[in-house]
Specification:
The strands form 4 sheets. This protein has a 7-stranded mixed β-sheet with strand order 2-1-3-4-5-11-10, sandwiched between helices. A 3-stranded parallel β-sheet has the order 7-6-8, with helices on both faces. Strands 9-12 form a two-stranded antiparallel ribbon. The two termini are 29 Å apart. The radius of gyration is 20 Å and the shape is globular. The chain has 2 domains: 161 residues, Response regulator (Rossmann fold, 3-Layer(aba) Sandwich), CATH 3.40.50; 175 residues, Rossmann fold (3-Layer(aba) Sandwich), CATH 3.40.50.2300. Helix content is 42%, strand content 19%.
């Protein structure tokens, strides 16, 4: 199921049927509004990727970047601030995807383009939606775990898995959850309990997982966690309870912590989805819409033209090949030196030399 990601900005433009045009758009202002800082990806990957692509295709454009810190009210204020500052296109990764519907309608009523980013906005038709395929992500991580359990000949009788989903206010988390359910349904292992993690907070995932470790004890043979943050919370819960070895735990986002946990054998898988790819695509779409063009879409999702990139599943078996050896803009996706800091011996076992 693994597919190679298209990593070049040129191919991104080709995907959308756009031609890179260097001429300025009269110093247009574009806002890039992200949802939280619980995940490090927004500061380290999404925003830099968006800015880099904007500089290539609209050097005179001004970019406003704001992060809502998981607060929907704060994001509404930031949205209004972006409009007040003259934004003509807003890329929105919504804290609360239901509440964001009114923001979309507000902006469009003023002729402002809205690109839903990472998280779809089901109750309003944004001008475009750009993301990795979240339902496919959920199915990938769950199916991978099931396959691993079967290879280890783990019996299904009197055992089961925990499911730690993302935020209940995040429509993308709902898609991941749907994919997880489909992946688990194919395996024959029952779900002992599941939890929707408010704000994707690792601490809340840890607290819930701790209770389940006490409740189910040795019945737990695996955990499907919807991202690396909630996976880290689950790892912490098992370690605090003295469980050794920690059962296989899934993840998503290929954060440094998640990748290091895979190297250390504390996390079974994650999803590699270099945020620079979707960020660059969002920049292409924003500029195209400001020019009056209609970016090509793969499909309609929630009545919105959409481009969904295919993610890559990462386990210890392919981490070196996919994360260290492959290049993004001429550089390793993750530096071996950074990945292996404090994990040198574990890296060597995977053939990774820092």
């Amino acid at each position: 199921m693994k597919r190679t990601l298209a990593l070049s900005a040129a191919l991104l433009s080709a995907v959308f049927g756009l031609q890179a045009k260097a001429q300025p758009l009269n110093n247009a202002t574009v806002a890039f509004l992200m949802p939280d800082q619980a995940s490090t990806r927004y500061e380290q990957h999404d925003y830099p990727g968006f800015v880099a692509q904007m500089k290539k295709i609209c050097a005179s454009c001004k970019v406003i970047y704001l992060n809502a810190d998981g607060d929907a009210t704060k994001q509404q204020q930031q949205f209004n601030s972006a409009i007040a500052q003259g934004a003509k296109a807003i890329v929105l990764d919504a804290v609360d995807t239901a509440a964001a519907a009114s923001l979309v309608k507000q902006a469009q009523g003023q002729g402002i383009k809205v690109i839903a980013y990472d998280r779809p906005i089901p109750n309003a038709k944004a001008d475009y939606y750009v993301s990795f395929d979240n339902e496919a992500i959920g199915k990938l991580i769950a199916t991978s775990l099931v396959t691993s359990l079967k290879k280890m000949n783990i019996p299904a009788a009197q055992t089961g898995v925990l499911e730690i989903n993302g935020s209940p206010t995040d429509a993308a988390a709902g898609l991941i959850k749907k994919g997880i359910h489909a992946g688990l349904a194919s395996g024959g292992y029952k779900t002992l309990a599941e939890y929707d993690t408010p704000d994707w907070a690792p601490s809340k995932a840890q607290q819930w997982a701790s209770g389940q470790v006490t409740r189910f004890s040795k019945q737990i043979i695996g955990v499907v966690a919807a991202n690396d943050g909630t996976a880290g919370g689950a790892v912490a819960a098992f370690k605090a309870a003295g469980v050794n070895p920690v059962p296989p735990i899934t993840g998503n986002d290929a954060t440094m912590a998640g990748l290091q946990y895979i190297v250390a054998g504390l996390q079974y898988n994650t999803i590699l989805k270099p945020s620079e790819i979707v960020a660059g695509a969002a920049a292409d779409v924003a500029v195209a819409l400001l020019k009056g063009e209609k970016p090509k879409a793969d499909k309609m999702l929630f009545n919105t033209p959409s481009k969904l990139f295919v993610p890559t599943l990462i386990t210890a078996d392919n981490l070196k090949a996919e994360v260290i050896d492959k290049k993004l803009n001429g550089q390793p996706i993750v530096s071996a030196a950074l990945l292996c800091k404090g994990y040198e011996d574990a890296c060597k076992k995977l053939g990774i030399n820092p």
